[in-house]
Specification:
Elements lengths: L13 E5 L2 E5 L2 E5 L5 H12 L3 E6 L4 E6 L10 E2 H6 L6 E8 L2 E8 L2 E10 L1 H13 L7 E3 L13 H4 L12 E2 L6 H17 L2 H32 L21 H13 L4 E2 L2 E8 L3 E8 L5 H8 L8 E4 L4 E7 L13 H13 L6 E5 L23 E9 L3 H4 L8 E11 L2 E12 L1
Parallel strand pairs: 2-6, 7-10
Antiparallel strand pairs: 1-2, 3-5, 4-5, 4-11, 7-8, 8-9, 12-13, 13-14, 13-19, 14-16, 15-16, 17-18, 18-20, 19-20
InterPro entries: PAP_PilO
Protein name: Pilus assembly protein
Organism: Pseudomonas aeruginosa
């Protein structure tokens, strides 16, 4: 293998050479939340961090920007090592290889995104320590791992020369210039900061910088997790959601009408008797309906299993009451994602109670106080700084002998969500117990 050139131009930045092309390692990676104006967001972040060179990387789960400074030796037209290498693999991976005497390059991805802080050239001991920590945190659970000897993993080498051959390189692996016009004063500040970092920091400042880097990496991982959660929720949503939606519980729950329709439809097709097993109750939370049946006479578990296989996807669970009671499951898919305007609290409670009282149903109400979690990167709130949401949450329950979808038909549904719908057969009569939440201003 051709020995790569290494030219470290900053405290964390290295430049490697393969086949005459320059590859930059040590970029500062940030996820971008904007799908359309990601370059505008990248310029803003670059200006905040005083970094003027960027690599933009698109993956199925997130858009990332990797920042570096021209003063560290990186220039437009060079390649991002992490971008170029990640483009050669399907799925997550960790790759580590020797580039000089005691210098090893390391790149890792998680959920399709480059792991912040894991795009670097470092010593053998540091590389091994980072890989161990990633393994302990479960980051490598679904990843392909390519490491040389001495890294506590099965040796799985690869040909870095072949992976970074010119024919494999795309234009979007290249670094771009960010044009935001830093002032002379800002350039002077960046240069002075580089000098301080390079030669005159005391042990305290080194330790403090290390702690800040750990906190920043944790914040970036949390932001990446939230973006992945947002992508997952959008796959279930009727309407597009944004990061702010993750702080509004009602947007992540099915609408009142959709929930009642799905649970009532699933309950309505249940048989009251299956081969001598009698229906007792069912519970529906929008994700799954679980129906409970009780054995009578000479009926057997085998009878129920055989008769239910055409009605239910899973086999019955005979784990209750010495096998005399069985649970059967029906999986549901109900869309989420309505961020309708909320009603004033008094109006919302009055609408619900009046609607139910007209039908002879007496609801039980309670209020619960919730706090809004801070956005990623925000400082942790003290007890005196707990952030209360602008909305209120009430819980309610109601019992009725009318089918739940009929009981709630015509109710103003803004901010009203059903969390559980239970149907019980007692004295040959079906009873419905509805539990839910009201979100209001």
């Amino acid at each position: 293998m051709e020995k790569p050139d290494i030219g470290s131009r900053g405290p964390d930045v290295s430049i490697l050479s393969y086949h005459g092309n320059k590859f930059v390692s040590g970029l500062f990676w940030r996820p971008l939340s904007s799908q359309r104006q990601y370059m505008k967001e990248a310029r803003k972040l670059g200006k905040e961090e005083h970094l003027d060179i960027v690599a933009i990387r698109h993956s199925p789960t997130v858009i990332q920007a990797g920042f570096v400074s021209k003063s560290q030796g990186a220039v437009k037209g060079m390649y991002s090592l992490a971008s170029a290498l990640s483009g050669q693999f399907e799925g997550d991976f960790l790759a580590c290889w020797k580039v000089d005497e005691d210098r090893y390059a390391l790149v890792a991805t998680l959920d399709g995104a480059i792991v912040p802080g894991q795009d670097l050239v470092t010593t053998f001991d540091e590389a091994r320590d980072r890989i161990r920590k990633l393994s302990t945190r479960g980051v490598l659970r679904n990843a392909q791992v390519f490491v040389p000897e001495g890294f506590d993993f099965p040796v799985k080498d690869f040909d870095i020369e072949e992976l970074l051959a010119p024919k494999r390189l795309r234009r979007d692996y290249r670094l771009r210039q960010l044009t935001f016009g830093l002032s002379a004063r800002e350039w002077t500040a960046v240069a002075l900061l580089g000098c301080l970092v390079g030669g005159s920091l005391t042990a305290y400042y080194l330790w403090n910088a290390h702690q800040q880097e750990l906190a920043r990496q944790a914040a970036l991982l949390e932001e990446q997790r939230r973006l992945a959660e947002l992508a997952e929720k959008n796959a279930q949503a009727k309407q597009p959601l944004d990061l702010a939606s993750l702080q509004k519980p009602w947007t992540l729950m099915p609408d009142l009408e959709d929930m009642l329709r799905a649970c009532s439809k699933a309950t309505g097709v249940l048989s009251l008797s299956i081969q001598g097993w009698l229906f007792e109750s069912s519970k529906c939370d929008g994700r799954v309906l679980v129906a409970t049946y009780h054995r009578t006479g000479n009926s057997t578990a085998a009878d129920l299993t055989a008769a239910s296989q055409h009605l239910f996807a899973d086999r019955p669970a005979f784990v209750i009451d010495n096998g005399n009671t069985a649970a059967l499951k029906v999986d549901l898919k109900v869309a989420i994602g309505s961020d309708e305007p909320l009603q004033p609290a008094d109006d919302a409670l009055q609408a619900l109670t009046s609607h139910l009282y007209r039908q002879g149903v007496e609801p039980k109400l309670s209020i619960s106080q919730e706090t809004t979690p801070p956005l990623p990167g925000a400082e942790a709130a003290t007890e005196q700084q707990v952030v209360l949401p602008s909305w209120k949450k009430f819980t309610f329950s109601a019992q009725t002998r009318l089918p739940a979808d009929l009981t709630f038909q015509g109710l103003p549904a803004a901010g009203v969500r059903i969390t559980n719908l239970e149907t019980t057969l007692k004295d040959s009569q079906l009873d419905w117990t509805v539990t839910g939440e009201i979100y209001a201003n």
